[in-house]
Design a protein that fits this description.
Lipoxygenase-1, domain 5; five-stranded antiparallel β-sheet; 19 helices; alpha+beta
Length: 473
């Protein structure tokens, strides 16, 4: 239904259709597919979500999973092979009604065990609950019927998808970014070197965020978050206590206890391609920013002496300004490069959402990343759900159509300004001095890196001019 013939999405997806369809009919196949789908196709949703279970975390989880802990979970937890994807924050969301049907985001906690040889994460237990924990039920692969387990896997995928849309993507890449851009516009003179670095990539995020919040009912994807106020409350709750650098991928990986060695076969993170892609973008931006800062500021003292820079950071941190925690004192080139890398990374990596391969064909087979359940009841783990009944919980055709419209807005709209200019990587340079300027050389290197990434990521149709310079959508 949602696979277009341009650019051959239907042909690309056909070979995967039997396997993906089996995730709705075959419990063993669905179990095998659960983690690879997230690890390989969640990049537009910034899905660094599994957390390695530490002894302290294990003590807390045992209370919820006590019925199976000693038999199934104690040994892998002790061996450091137990992981959790905790989406229990969605217990704060009430089901909503849209177009005559319910939209429900369940609260889920999914436990997965890592295979020490293949590195694969296999889901073994899922706790599913409704608003404020109502109707909570524990599903296990060993104890639930096949149909009930298929339901639990889909419930977990809904909560992960909703997290990816609103917190992984919008909170991480839109909200904090827009706040830093606004304070930059309000405090830095247009001739300031940091303004010159940031301004070309800061044109549209603020306006888009305003439009999203104002026209929520018309343009928001079909999740159970029915109003912009409900989203802002979710974002406030998620952001409580978070610091600016907590949104950086390397910091996130460290906080979640995710080690490169545990997700590496032949090349770093090749068993978690989403992380590979995000770190590639990070490294490209970090190289660009570091080169820029070193070419612009001759010493740490020159950073500390920049009054306009100090005002920008202070305003960004102020509760009546950007209200952003954890910004460092601007007393060194390293501190400045850290802030600028984090900020420009968010703008740059957002562009991967605009490439066809990010949505097509995996996300546009909506059951892979369902955006809501359409029934609010949680079946008993021993209930015998056939395929027809299972489908009554999953997105209906109207919801699927809205989901496709959401994805296609990213993939099939032309950027206002592409990250790689139509005239080539050496044109439309941001800084005076032409191609011999060290800052422009760094910009050209960034653009070449983006082009190389797109050739690897989407070799059949790299879409070099689809990656936007700014956050537009």
């Amino acid at each position: 239904m949602g696979w277009t013939t341009v650019p051959n999405v239907y042909r690309a997806g056909r070979k995967s259709l039997p396997v993906w369809a089996s995730s709705l009919t075959d419990a063993d196949s669905a179990t095998r597919q659960f983690w690879p789908m997230i690890a390989e196709h969640g990049v537009g949703y910034n899905l660094i979500v599994p957390e390695k279970v530490t002894p302290a975390r294990a003590r807390a989880l045992r209370r919820s999973f006590n019925a199976i802990w000693a038999r199934d979970l104690r040994a892998p937890a002790a061996a450091g092979r137990l992981y959790v994807i905790d989406m229990s924050r969605f217990a704060a969301l009430q089901p909503q009604s849209a177009h005559g049907a319910s939209r429900f985001t369940p609260s889920t906690i999914t436990l997965l065990i890592r295979d020490p040889h293949t590195g694969a994460l296999t889901p073994v237990a899922i706790l599913v609950a409704g608003y404020q924990g109502r109707g909570e039920k524990l599903f296990t692969r060993a104890g639930a019927t096949d149909g009930a387990w298929l339901y639990a896997l889909q419930a977990a995928k809904v909560s992960i998808t909703v997290f990816g849309i609103w917190l992984g993507h919008v909170y991480h890449w839109h909200l904090v970014t827009a706040a830093m851009q606004m304070t930059m516009f309000n405090t830095l003179p247009t001739g300031h070197p940091v303004y010159q670095l940031l301004a070309p990539q800061s044109k549209y995020a603020i306006a888009f965020d305003d439009v999203l919040l104002s026209l929520w009912a018309d343009i928001a994807p079909p999740t159970s978050i029915a109003t912009s106020a409900e989203f802002l409350q979710l974002a406030d709750d998620y952001g409580a206590g978070r610091s600016f650098f907590d949104d950086d991928p390397k910091v996130t990986l460290a906080q979640l206890g995710l080690r490169e060695a545990d997700f590496t076969g032949k090349t770093p993170w090749d068993r978690y391609p989403v992380v590979q892609h995000l770190l590639t973008m990070w490294d490209l931006v970090e190289t660009y920013v570091t080169s820029y800062v070193r070419a612009t500021y001759g010493s740490d003292a020159s950073v500390a002496a920049d009054g306009s820079l100090q005002t920008w950071i202070a305003t960004s941190a102020a509760t009546d300004g950007g209200n952003i925690r954890g910004l460092p004192e601007m007393d060194s080139r390293a501190a400045l490069a850290g802030v600028l890398t984090s900020l420009l990374y968010r703008v740059t990596v957002h562009g991967i959402s605009r490439l066809s391969a990010t949505s097509n064909p995996a996300l546009t087979f909506v059951a892979n990343f369902p955006q809501c359940l359409q029934r609010t009841d949680i079946p008993d783990p021993r209930a015998r759900l056939d395929t027809k009944t299972l489908l009554t919980y999953l997105p209906n055709t109207g919801t699927i159509g809205q989901a496709l419209s959401f994805y296609f807005t990213f993939v099939f709209s032309t950027p206002y300004e592409p990250a790689i200019p139509l005239g080539g990587v050496g044109t439309d340079l941001f800084f005076p001095g032409g191609p011999d300027d060290a800052r422009n050389r760094a910009l050209i290197t960034l653009r070449k890196g983006l082009a190389a990434f797109m050739h690897d990521y989407q070799p059949d149709a790299p879409q070099l001019f689809q990656w936007p310079r700014n956050i537009e959508t």
